[in-house]
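Checked the freezer inventory, then went back to the computational side. Two predictions to log before the end of the day. The first one is the construct we discussed on Monday; recording sequence and tokens without edits.
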Amino acid sequence: MAVLYLIAGMGLDERCFSRLLPLLNWQGTVEFLPHLIPEHSREPLKNYVQRLRAQLPAEWDEPPTLMGMSLGGIIAAELAKLIPHQQLFLISTLKQASEVPLYFKILDKIPAHRILPATFSQKYGRKLAKFLGNFEPTYLNTVFDMIEQSDPRHFAWGRNTAINWIAPLTKPQNCFHIHGDKDHIFPARKIQADYWVKGGTHNLILERAEEIAQVINERIY
């Protein structure tokens, strides 16, 4: 039976898929891949993904499908290089070098983001939640709870990893990218999405779950 692996973004957990998952016409099993505790704040992404791969089966009866959002999309794209996969669904993320925003390139050269303490996400969780998207109060509280309960070590690692990621020059194989045209984390002007969610912000996986599910259901095989 085919497996769908889910990978959440930085500071988030399986709850970010809570609205989308019940709407998917997925006939196999679903497994959430929780964030690993990084070996240190600058652990190479390649090493991190190899550790993640080591936790998965050596082989599958059917190639799995991967789905990742935000930082989880970057991780999913790197994991897809290591395993045979049926499909790769990316949501609110980057997938190739041409999509990397200018401010990432600046922070790569002048790493001002490292001034922020690892506990920044917990201390300012509610402000971060509001910054990530426009939510109904219930969803805002869910995002706040995820950020507040996240491991600060993964936050410190995740921000470094996203900014320093050496993105591939071309689109990953078997990839379908869904993005919001109001995403301010990964600005739409640089993204080459396969499907645009009109008015969708960075956390459209919660805001626009019905629309995303319809798009994915039309493409799942």
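The second is the one RB wanted added to the comparison set:
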Amino acid sequence: MNSQKIDGIGTLNGGEYDRIEADGIARLAGDVKAEFLAINGVMNGEGKLACGSMQCDGVCNLKGKLSAGNMKVDGTLNLKNGRLTAGELFCDGCITLNGAKLEGEKIICDGCLNTDSEICADLVKVDGIVKAGEIYGDEIVIHSGNKGKGRIKANIDINILGFQLKKSLAISSAKVLEATKVDIECVNADIVNGQYVRIGSGCIIQQVDCDKELYIARSAEIEKITGNAEVYYIED
């Protein structure tokens, strides 16, 4: 295996590599496997990209399948019509998935995570903003924005490509949240399903189904509660 560094404009041909560094503008042409991938510039392409470790501080636009044992996104990652798989994913930037599922063991997001499909991981922990179709896991923790009452908006700081942006964004949202443990604040969801559930301030939920323990902030808005859980109301 060899290594490749692209400083200007170049093409990354299919094959196996020890190390890839894209500091300029790189085009992915074919299926690539690498022990380490660093994107500090821009990478565009279509195919299958598999990495032992991936660091994206720039912009990555891909169509296909992307996988990594360890992935850190401080820049921008856009993936279409495929699947994103990571053992551990850390996002301080922005990830947008169009028609692509996200699977992993641990997903930690302090930035923005947006998908029209499904997120599935043992642990999903979000202190930034997440918008998804469905989120499944063993433990889901989403604390988006500042605590407040009713229909609020969340202010978060995001560092993208060296620019500090302060965004006033809508609260996190998903059609379905399902896990053994669910702990959420400032989340809009159709259905929340779990055994141990905490619905914090700023949440707007259509239905909560819980079988063991359910904690609800007094300012949270819930249309329907089902299941056999003990219900406890807590202060914001």
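For RB: Residues 132 and 211 are 24 Å apart (CA to CA). The longest strand covers residues 76-91. Let me know if you want it refolded.
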